[in-house]
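Thread: protoporphyrin IX containing FE complex, take 2
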Amino acid sequence: MATKIVTLTELREHTGKNDIWVLINGKVYDVTKFIDEHPGGDEVILSEAGKDGTEAFEDVGHSDEARALLPPMLVGEFDHGDEAKAKSYQSTASAVAMDSAVQQTSNVFYFVPLAALVAYFAWRFYA
Ligand code: HEM
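Output below.
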């Protein structure tokens, strides 16, 4: 049987409590039945429902036993054309962090001329 290809649109449709798909390392898994047995609790998996949960899954450092549970839950391969989109969808938070870093740098540029102005008036006042 040919491997099923799951698109991003399809992945995002499975986020209900009784219908949960998660993308991990390029493959999509139906974890609906598994979440009740998950040693890490159902909440953490639910928060990755319909998304790329690779980072969350890998950050925990899941054992080989945990990885061995995945194949029976396989739905199919993720559509690689959609992979970049899934990633950019996830990285919105880091884009926001980046924006505020840029803003902090521009605050410094504000401060320098202001300090010069204050120094000038101080000099006028005391001279
Ligand atoms: C969807 C497939 C997943 C499977 C098959 C799975 C399986 C497991 C298993 C078997 C364990 C026990 C420890 C181990 O053997 O490594 C575990 C623990 C854990 N998992 Fe998952 N997991 C999945 C997804 C996730 C996701 C997406 C998260 C999100 C953060 C997560 C967070 C955790 C945490 C925090 C623990 C530690 C629990 C503890 O030690 O108290 N898991 N998982």
